[in-house]
Amino acid sequence: MNSKVNEIKISYQELPAVFQSSKITCSQDAYHILRDSWDPSTLGLQESFRVLLLNNASQVKGIYELSKGGLTGTLVDIRILLAVALKTLSTGIILAHNHPSGQLRPSKADQQLTRKIQKAGRYLDIRVLDHLILAPHGGYFSFADDCML
Which of 83, 88, 97, 143 could form an SS bridge with 49, CB 3.0 to 4.6 Å? Predict the structure, then answer.
């Protein structure tokens, strides 16, 4: 019997610059970093979902764009989100997505997704510190600031 299987490689390389990276102390810090990473011309065009990855000192390790969708939604695969957090050895994450409509209040689906990611993260000791909703006009909504986490 000649069985072939895929080779699995797991690697991670952290740059020394991460120790000098921005530290997140509040939702406004996270908002500015996330807003700078977004192409302003797409904030009002299509919804996308990103995750801000943090080390134990709340320093930014990076931003990962998990998905791009349409005008009213985007799919989020929690397995991929947590795989990225695990691979980068992140201990905290901040979720973010935009609402092209400009509506800053989270939908029921936004709230359910946040709770589901929080629950899954707890099993892996990955803390969901916030979930931000960005609008094309420059405002944002913070789940943490609104005591929804």
Answer: 97
Q: Please list the alpha-helical segments (H only) found in 14-55.
A: 27-37
CATH fold for the domain made of 39-142:
Cytidine Deaminase; domain 2 (3.40.140)
pTM, 2 dp: 0.88
For strands 92-98 and 48-54, give the pairing.
Answer: antiparallel
**Residue ranges per structural domain of the chain:** 39-142
In this structure, are residues 51 and 147 in contact, taking their beta carbons and an 8 Å threshold?
no
Please report which confidence band the pLDDT of residue 17 belongs to, taking 50, 70 and 90 as the band edges. low
Which distant-in-sequence residues (6+ apart) come within 8 Å of 95 by Cβ?
Answer: 49, 50, 51, 52, 114, 117, 128, 130, 131, 132
